[in-house]
Amino acid sequence: MGAATARALDGEQRARRASETHRYFLGIALASREWLDGHEVPARQHLADCPAEPRHWEWYYLHRLCHAHSLWWAGDVPVYRVAFAPDGRTVAAASEDDTVRLHDADTGQVIRALVHARFTPLKLAFSPDGARLLTGGRVRESRTGPGTVFIWEVATGRPLLQCRPHTEPVCAVAFRPGGRQFASAGIDRTVKLLDAASGQVVHDLTGHRHFLNDLAFSPDGRLLAGGDATGQVTLWDEEGRVVRRFAGHSSQVRSVAFSPDGSRLATASADRSVKVWNVEKGQEMLAFWLGTEVRCVSFAPHGAALATGGDDWLVKTWNARTGQLRHTFRGHGGMVATLVYRPDGRQLMSGGGDGTLRLWDPDRAQEARLLRGHPDSVLDVLFTPDSRQIVSLGADRTVKVWEADTGRLQRSVPLAADVSFRSSACSPDGRYFAAPTRGQPRVSLWDLGGSRHPLTLSGLRGKVECLCFSGDGRLLAGGDDRGTVVVWDSTEGRQVLSSVGSAPSTVGTVAFSPDGSRLAVAVWGMSKTQRL
Asked: Which terminus in the chain has less CB density within 10 A, N or C?
């Protein structure tokens, strides 16, 4: 290469670097202006457009500011908080557009959206049975309050309860095991224990020094832990009395989590440390430093491992007894803001400031694969008992059967337009699907494994309230709002049993015994068992 050519190439490189530097500082200036004006989304976009090579402390500083309170679900919807349902099939995500979306945990498809015209959700928690979702936030028109709490019915998306226990926005919520009570904390520094049915305050909790960033009940529901902005963790008992305090962090506690047996409490702090405490003795058992601000911590269901996430963009799992690092998961392009284990422990979910939610296999130390399903929202999904198949119900009015190991679509069955998804049921083997006809006392039955036309089942007198298959799928039971219970043969659609109540009353639940010889019926105010 000649000297003239080398000088030309060197000049070209210098010009390119100068151009990138100019673009970089222009992007920093634009992002800073948008941030100061309260426009987080444009600020994030300007930062994303900055060239990678010149990025220095000012880029990372602005990036942290723009993602301090949110992470992104793929699809460019900013998300404040995520939570797994207890069965592990559903993920709730509270978004910046004031909507809580319920996602299928395997596909990421939206199952349902929960939205109220005047409510901004900031925190959320599922009830222990997964039937309700607790969301805490603020009135949309005001960034300072009052703190509002909703309880939603997951199956329908309708609000069951609304109350305003705080004068300022809600900063933490948690359901008590059993689901009859919940705890709520506000920026007004109040913490309250409330009745989940009425929203009435059961106890006002005191003893903490500042507003709480996170709340967690012990597995037996006897203790409530809260971590505050000063680094203190407070434990309350069932009567709202302070049991003990943990004061070992030098900066705010961002996350608290009990071990599955309730004997230990893990706390993650902005002081770059995670600590594990002996709950009974109030002693620090373990402490380890991550070299970066720790934003979230989660115990594995078996209690032997801990997962952490922070500003270093990494997800890490640790031995919960020794503090030894087990695995480091790389993939996020921004801070890790939230972590939660799937209830069966097979997967770990993380949410990051790079705009993604990722599912990891903690045993194989790799990112798990995701299924991609219906072109529209997934309304329900279940595994067959042998875990070989997945049956999904979509807003595209189809029932699809998938091979669980590969995600391959095995068959798709279209549903009629007048079918109601409420109270629908799938047989345990994945062969039959039953659903009520909207506004009629009829049930339609599809054979998902065959080619026959759907059967119309009659015998009920009112609105269909519940459907249930026997364990072998041969029988289908249904109850209505007039006290009537009918059992049909799934293969032929003929009526096997009919029982009419002495007085009109809603049949809330029907359930077969494991051998299918008896049927339990729950009617408002009473329950009975019928031998078949």
From this structure: N
The span from the CA of 229 to the CA of 251, in Å, is 7
- Do residues 243 and 224 touch, judged by C-beta distance below 8 A? no
Q: Which residues pair with 89 in a beta bridge?
A: none
Instruction: Report yes or no: 389 and 402 within 8 Å, Cβ to Cβ.
Output: yes
Maximum pairwise Cα distance, the chain: 103
Cβ proximity of 324 and 365 under 8 Å: no
From 103, 11, 26, 127, select the one nearest 372 (Cα to Cα). 103
DSSP string over 94-116: EETTSEEEEEETTT--EEEEEE-
* Residue 415 dihedral angles phi and psi, to the nearest 5°: -110, 155
Q: Are 192 and 205 in contact (CB under 8 A)?
A: yes
Q: What is the pLDDT of residue 74?
A: 43
**pLDDT at position 224:** 93
Rounded to whole angstroms, the Cα distance separating 384 from 461 reads 31
Q: Helix, strand or coil for residue 88?
A: coil
Beginning with the edge strand found earlier in the chain, give each strand of the sheet holding 389-394 in spatial order. Answer: 378-383, 389-394, 398-403, 409-414
Measured distance CA(240)–CA(174) in Å, rounded: 15
Task: Indicate the Cα dihedral angle 262, 264, 265, 268, nearest 10°.
Answer: -140
Closest-CA residue to 380 (of 434, 321, 322, 334): 434
SS3 call for 42: helix
Q: What pLDDT does 477 receive?
A: 92
Per-residue pLDDT at 60 exceeds 80: no
Q: Which residues contact 87 (CB under 8 A, 6 or more apart)?
A: 130, 343
The dihedral of CA 290, 223, 92, 372: what is its sign? positive
Structure tokens given for 203 = 């106890």
CA 521 vs CA 142, 331, 469: distances in Å: 47, 50, 13
Question: Could you read off the pLDDT of 452-504 as tens digits, one per residue?
Answer: 678 889 899 888 888 989 888 889 999 888 888 999 998 888 888 887 665 56
Spatial distance between the Cα atoms of 6 and 344, rounded to a whole number of angstroms? 61
C-alpha span between 309 and 317 (Å, rounded): 9
Distance CA 441, CA 484 (A): 11
pLDDT, the chain, mean: 77
**Whole-angstrom distance, CA of residue 498 vs CA of residue 491:** 18
Task: Give the helix/strand (H/E) hosting 235.
Answer: strand 232-236
Taking alpha carbons only, the member of 179, 89, 90 closest to residue 129 is 179
